[in-house]
Structures are given as structure tokens and as C-alpha cells.
Design brief:
Length: about 240
């Protein structure tokens, strides 16, 4: 599903347990669509959410496909803002341990949207062409349907028109891998093989695996005429 673009946005986050249910509702009925739409046609192509994470990384994961990361820094980018509903603003202070990066795709193989993903932060090795070959090798495992490897682009801001985040020492070659499968439990059984193959791309720092929550493509956003749920926060609002 990354074939149409050269980048992706990956974000992990924890959430306070007492607002976890509202967090899920807010994303499915509100914020996922707002984030997907804010760069306009040809910006963000699709969005996927995953939850119930296990591992070192935070338990919620969001994955957005980008046609071109230059859309974040090009003409008019400063005027593009994600619309933040009252529902989103009420939940946002309860986020924990947020990790967010834009990446340029180094290798992608497979197709579709898996029912589960494994995600990895890793220190990439400087080997031209290797990530594409490694992504292809991952899809040859029985449970894997797609694999994507990207390099964090420290010259791109998290939101359009903003300042790029500072690159911490030692993170110059930070990479992200997202591996999709049709069964979370079968993927877990092949985790050692996934790590062995992915280790050829670099040194793995941390990992987590997640169940699928929700998917939305840009072309579907106009059909969500009632996706905002501000009244969940303010009962007086119509």
C-alpha cells in the first residue's frame, strides 16, 4: 500500500487508562479523518490505526501513507493545519510517551492491509538497495503480507509549515520498519525470524506488535459527514 508514495508518518502513543475508550472513539470518529484530510488531495493517501500493543513501544500506533513528504514544506504549507475538535483537545493532554516521525521509504513489498502489525525502531546500516530486498524477504515468511522500511527525515516537520524536530545525537540514521500480517498470533510465532531478517537492515532498538483497529483512505473522507463528535464532550452542543 506504499507503492503510490515516497513517505510515511508513524506515531506511537500511550494514553491514560481512564480515557482509553474515549481515545479510541475520538480517533475512529474524529481525528484520524482530520489528520488524513489536512494536506488536501495528493498529500496523505491513507491512514491506519492499531491498538492493544505489546512490547517496548507505546501501545497505540498510527500509520499514514504520504505521496510526497515535500508537501509538508512546500508553498502554502504554513497555512495547512489539522482541524482540532473539542473532543480531540479534551483527550490530547492524556497522551503519554508519544513518538512521531516522518520517513522516506527505503523499501516496501507486499500489498493489502494486515490484521496486525509489528513495528520497529532501528539504527539503519548504509547499504544501498538492501532495505528493498529485506522487505521482500520478510513477505516470504508465511504470516507476513507486507513490509515497509523507512529512514526518519529530520528535515521535515511533524506538522506542515512547522520547524523540523532536532535530531538527538546518535539518531542520524534512525529508521522505522512496519511489518504486516494476516494473523497477530502467527506473526508472534515468527517474531524471531522477522527480527533475524530485519537485523540485516540495522540494529533493532525496540519493537511492539499490535492488532488492527481502523483504516481510512483519503477518497473516503467526504463520505464521513458525521464523523465529528464534539457533543461527546459538551452535551449542550447540538
Amino acid at each position: 500500500m506504499l507503492k503510490a508514495g515516497n513517505g510515511f508518518f508513524a506515531m506511537w502513543a500511550g494514553i491514560a487508562p481512564d480515557v482509553a475508550a474515549a481515545f479510541e472513539l475520538m480517533h475512529a470518529r474524529d481525528h484520524l479523518a482530520e489528520h488524513l484530510a489536512y494536506l488536501g488531495e495528493g498529500g496523505i493517501l491513507w491512514a491506519r490505526r492499531y491498538g492493544e500493543g505489546q512490547g517496548i513501544l507505546p501501545p497505540n500506533f498510527a500509520f499514514y501513507g504520504m505521496r510526497n513528504l515535500d508537501r509538508l514544506t512546500g508553498p502554502g504549507s504554513a497555512e495547512r493545519k489539522v482541524f482540532e475538535t473539542e473532543f480531540f483537545k479534551a483527550i490530547r493532554p492524556h497522551y503519554r510517551d508519544r513518538i512521531a516521525h516522518h520517513c522516506r521509504v527505503l523499501g516496501s513489498a507486499g500489498a493489502g492491509t494486515g490484521s496486525a502489525v509489528a513495528t520497529f525502531l532501528l539504527d539503519l546500516r548504509a547499504e544501498d538497495g538492501a532495505p528493498a530486498q529485506i522487505a521482500d524477504r520478510l513477505t516470504r515468511l508465511p504470516s507476513i503480507t507486507a513490509a515497509h522500511i523507512g529512514a526518519v527525515d529530520w528535515g521535515v516537520s511533524i506538522r506542515a509549515g512547522g520547524e523540523p524536530p532536532p535530531c538527538p545525537p546518535g539518531d542520524e540514521r534512525l529508521g522505522i520498519a512496519v511489518v504486516e500480517g494476516f494473523s497477530r498470533w502467527r506473526m508472534a510465532g515468527e517474531f524471531a525470524s522477522i527480527i533475524e531478517i530485519l537485523g540485516q537492515a540495522g540494529t533493532i532498538r525496540s519493537a511492539g506488535h499490535y492488532g488492527f483497529s481502523y483504516a481510512l483512505d483519503y477518497a473516503e473522507v467526504p463520505g464521513l459527514r458525521h464523523h465529528r463528535r464534539d457533543h461527546e464532550v459538551d452535551p449542550q452542543q447540538p
